[in-house]
Every structure is written in C-alpha cells, then in structure tokens.
Design goal:
The protein is α/β, with parallel strands linked by helices. 41% of the residues lie in helices and 17% in strands. The protein starts with 5 loop residues before the first helix and ends in a 17-residue tail after the last helix.
Length: 403
C-alpha cells in the first residue's frame, strides 16, 4: 500500500495550503510570546487530537512548566514520544504527564499542591454523537461534560488560574443531540464563573482525521480490508489537527473573559461531505470506489477483495441515526458576535442563554440520576429546561448499529 502524506491530503481537503490561523498567529506573535513565555500551564485531556495539538501550538513559545493529565495512558506515552521527537518545540524542564481522571482525588492533590497555574485548558469530554444510545450513555456524557466541569470550576475557584479555557463544539449551536446540548450547557456553566475566573471557550469544526473520527476510520478500514461507509447527505466544516490546536491556543491566551471563539468559514466553500473524503482518499491509494447497495454486499466484497483490484467497496447511505444534522453552525441569531478583532476568527461576546446556577443544575441532575426508573427521555427533558431551543431528534437508531 502506498504511503499517505496525511498532512498534505488534509490541506487538499480543506483547500488551504497554510494554516487558517496563520494571519492571526503572525499579527499577535509578540503578545502570545509575552503571555506564554515563562508561564505555568496545566492541560487536561492533552493526549487527544485537539489537546495534543494545543500543546504543540503552545510549545512554539517557551512556557516554564507544563503538566498534562489524561485517562489515556497509552496516548500520553505517544504524546511524549511525539513531542520529544519534534526539534521545533520548546519543551520545558518541568514537564510531567499524569494518567488520571481530572474528576478524581489525585488530580485535586496535584492542583492544590502545584497550582495556581497561569493557564488551565480542559479538553477532556465526550465528543461523539455516537456516544448517545440510552440512559446509561447519556448519563455518562452529561456527568463528564457538565458535572465534572462544575467540579473542576469549583476546584479552580480555590486557586484561580490566570486563564481557563474549555473546548466546546459547533454542535452547541442549536443542538439536536445530547452531546451538543451538554456542551452548550457546559459553556453556560463556564460563563457563570466569569466573575470568579477568567474563562474562554471555542466552538469549531470537525478535526480532519482526529482520533475516532469517520475519516480516521477510513484509514483503519483500508488497513483491515474492510469497506468504507459514510452518510451521503452529511456535510461538515473541517480544520486540520494543527489548526484545531492553534485555534484553542489563541482563544485561551488572547480571549477576553467570557469569549466564545469560532473559525470564520464559508458554508459554500468550506463544507465537505464525508463521501468526497472517502472517494478522494481512495484515489490517493490508486483505487476507484465500488459502490454497494447494502452492508452485506460491501462486507462480502471486502472479504473477497482481489489484491490486484483497482476498485474498493464503499457504502454511501442516507443518514438515519439520532442526533445527526445535515450541517453544523457556529453561532445562533441570538448571539452577539465580533468579527473585527481577528482575521480568521469570530468571537461570540454575548451568549444566547443566561448562565444557569451551577448548584441548582448539579442538584437537578444528581436527583435524576439517583432514580432507578429514569429514562433517556427524562434526561433530554431536563436538558431542555436548561438549554432553551434544544430540539432533540430521536430516531431510535444510533451509529453503533451500522458499519
């Protein structure tokens, strides 16, 4: 199989030969240096695609202290190897990684003993619409994205960092799934602490070939000689892994208190379908798509694939699972935006909803989760109480039920 230059391929998919954020990184270089050089930084969820690229963007400058926490021990190992192998990064002498849960007691010990930090950035979250299945899965999602966020904010309020950043999602604008609603609620909770902490967050596009994403799955399917499958009616904005880290770094370091950042992308020019990515990826390997009518045909053709064949089985189908939108949005008509401050970024300076009382929210969620008879519908209804406009689309089918 031919070697794939993934970075070059992503540039062709996005249509950008240089980073979307290049103009703003250049314009604010001196200010970024003055705020990052010598700073102490704590990154939560730093082993994932966005968190690790945030760290790389940060290490273009010279922080004095960098601690990284993540539950993925193997991911942290790869992060260290990746960083240490990159000659362009300024890894501080005081650099440590911790395989642990940020909602647990060991993390609290680290924070209280090693803080306060100049910057704290949190990337630990449920990020997949696929994680929404039943009441167990949505409770886990809400606990991680909302209740754990409340716990972290309370911990930081004891020793406030200079800046706190928490990653959000484009699915928080007009959410139709629990993941998007939980992220919107997380944003509102974070903003509720703006009188006690300096906070900012960012909504952004799909990260091309990020861990667990459908495009990354295409590569896995090719390596395992399995068919490629994708919804034909879904289009998404995409940023590169590098751009995702740079966007979050700019939002963390330059954001005003309460800002929500988003990339300025054009729906007509910048949205890409998953089917196009699959077809273009096959072309990179010298293959043409062999369009199949159902899963059985696609799987059988992949099983009997001729090694010399120049075609590869694909299955493109209409989206029929809970929580999928045909396209995504970065903001709503009710939110106040500033598109003058940065070249490639917009900033929501006033969110659409009043920030909920964290104590009341936590109490309501815990009371629901302590019941033995609660349902997924009950969780959706409670989220609707705190996220006005949450229009959940239940199709009684989730992504785990298809290839």
């Amino acid at each position: 199989m031919v070697f794939l230059n993934l970075s070059a391929f992503i540039k062709r998919i996005t249509g950008r030969s240089e980073s979307l954020l290049a103009p703003d990184l250049e314009a604010y270089h001196d200010e970024l240096s003055s705020r990052i050089d010598g700073a102490s930084v704590l990154v939560i969820g730093g082993a994932g695609t966005i968190g690790s690229n945030f760290i790389k963007a940060l290490l273009a400058y010279k922080p004095a202290k960098l601690y990284v926490a993540d539950t993925n021990e193997n991911g942290l190992t790869e992060l260290v190897r990746d960083l240490r192998s990159n000659p362009d990064l300024n890894i501080p002498e005081d650099f440590k990684t911790y395989p642990l849960d940020f909602s647990g007691p060991v993390f609290e010990k680290i924070y209280r003993a090693e803080g306060p930090f100049d910057m704290v950035a949190n990337f630990a979250a449920h990020k997949h619409v696929r994680s929404e299945k039943d009441h167990y899965s949505v409770e886990a999602m809400v606990r991680n994205n909302v209740l754990n966020a409340v716990g972290l904010l309370e911990l930081m309020a004891e020793q406030p960092p200079g800046r706190f950043f928490c990653v959000s999602t484009d699915k928080a604008a007009n959410p139709v799934n629990v993941m998007g609603a939980s992220k919107k609620l997380m944003e509102d909770v974070v903003l509720n602490y703006a009188d006690r902490l300096h906070v900012s967050t960012a909504r952004f596009a799909n990260v091309a070939f990020s861990n667990g994403s459908l495009p990354a799955g295409f590569i896995e399917r090719l390596h395992k000689q399995q068919p490629l499958a994708a919804p034909r009616d879904i289009r998404r904005y995409f940023v590169s892994p590098e751009e995702s880290g740079q966007l979050c770094m700019l939002a963390c370091v330059l954001g005003n208190n309460g800002d929500i950042f988003y990339p300025r992308l054009d729906a007509d020019k910048d949205m890409v379908s998953f089917t196009r990515i699959a077809e273009d990826l096959l072309a990179e390997y010298g293959l043409r798509p062999d369009y199949c009518s159902d899963e059985k045909e696609a799987i059988q053709k992949a099983k009997n694939l001729d090694p010399e064949a120049k075609t590869y089985p694909v299955l493109f189908f209409p989206s029929n699972t809970t929580g999928e939108k045909p396209f995504e949005e970065f903001y709503t008509s009710l939110e106040t935006r500033d598109e003058e401050r940065f070249t490639s970024l917009g900033v929501i300076t006033e969110s659409a909803c009043a920030a909920p009382d964290a104590a009341a929210l936590k109490s309501d969620l815990e009371k629901l989760f302590q019941r033995n008879d609660y349902s997924k519908k009950d969780v959706v209804q409670l989220l609707g109480k705190y996220v006005p406009g949450f229009a959940h689309e239940e199709k009684d089918r989730h992504l785990d039920q298809s290839i």
